[in-house]
């Protein structure tokens, strides 16, 4: 397993060792010991799978005050995946990073607690898997606007398909400080 750090401390891309031949392929998408050796001591509480059509954008989502870290990967197709630092007081507050995840590159993207997450589908369809460090809590469910001008995320789609929740999500500046995680060094 190879760890590729991004410009946001804690957010990283993981490239597994893929064993393949004419029959197909095999790789470990999670191995506690190997992840720990890379500095990622993770304990997952919930795994989710979603399937979306081309042009769908999901996000930017987070939970507060019951935050979730997410290890995400694509099982079919391709997505452009984004993490945004929304921790009040963080030196990288409002900064984002992105990675293309696909069934072909087998990459995983680690998004720690305190970051918002979203993705858009680049292929005809994408099957997306995410392991979460905390259970989903409807009372903690939150979102911020995918096209918030202050974030200036360079989404590869100009007019994505959105849910009502994502279309009407507030901009980061409109969210009360108590509804955002705080940075701890």
What does this protein look like?
It contains 2 helices and 13 strands; from the N terminus they run E-E-E-E-H-E-E-E-E-E-E-E-E-E-H. It has 185 residues and is mostly beta strands. The protein has a single domain (2-19, 30-179), classed as Jelly Rolls. The chain has a 6-stranded antiparallel beta sheet, with no helix packed on it.
Provide the CATH architecture. Answer: Sandwich
CATH class membership:
Mainly Beta
Structural class: mainly beta
Query: Radius of gyration in whole Å, from Cα?
Result: 16 Å
Residues in helices, as a percent range:
under 10%
The total count of helices amounts to: 2
The CATH topology comes to Jelly Rolls
What is the number of domains?
1
Largest sheet: 6 strands, antiparallel
Q: What is the terminal separation in angstroms?
A: 27 Å
| Mean pLDDT figure | 97
Shape, per Cα inertia axes: globular
Strand arrangement within the widest β-sheet reads 1-2-10-7-12-5
Q: Could you give me the name of the CATH homologous superfamily? A: Jelly Rolls
Order of helices and strands: EEEEHEEEEEEEEEH
Number of E-type strands:
13
pLDDT < 50 stretches: none
Strand content bin = 35-45%
Secondary structure layout plus pairing:
Layout lengths: L1 E4 L6 E4 L3 E3 L2 E3 L5 H6 L8 E8 L3 E7 L6 E7 L1 E8 L10 E7 L5 E4 L3 E7 L3 E8 L8 E3 L20 H4 L18
Antiparallel strand pairs: 1-2, 2-10, 3-4, 5-12, 6-11, 6-13, 7-10, 7-12, 8-9, 8-11
Defining key terms:
5-stranded antiparallel β-sheet; 5% helix; 6-stranded antiparallel β-sheet; Jelly Rolls; 13 strands; 185 residues; mainly beta; 2 helices
């Amino acid at each position: 397993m190879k760890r590729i750090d991004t410009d946001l401390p804690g957010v990283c891309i993981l490239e597994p060792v893929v064993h393949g031949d004419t029959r197909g392929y095999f790789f470990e998408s999670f191995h506690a010991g190997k992840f720990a050796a890379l500095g990622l001591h993770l304990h997952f509480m919930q795994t989710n799978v979603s399937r979306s059509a081309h042009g769908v954008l999901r996000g930017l989502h987070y939970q507060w005050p019951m935050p979730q870290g997410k290890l995400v990967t694509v099982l079919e197709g391709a997505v452009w995946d984004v993490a945004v630092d929304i921790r009040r007081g963080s030196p990288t507050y409002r900064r984002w990073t992105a990675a293309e995840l696909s069934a072909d590159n087998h990459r995983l993207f680690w998004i720690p607690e305190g970051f918002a997450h979203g993705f858009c589908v680049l292929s005809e369809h994408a099957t997306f898997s995410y392991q979460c460090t905390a259970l989903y809590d409807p009372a903690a469910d939150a979102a911020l606007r995918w096209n918030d001008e202050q974030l200036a995320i360079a989404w590869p789609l100009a007019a994505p398909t959105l849910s009502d929740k994502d279309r009407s999500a507030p901009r980061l500046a409109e969210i009360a400080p108590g509804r955002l995680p705080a940075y701890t060094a």
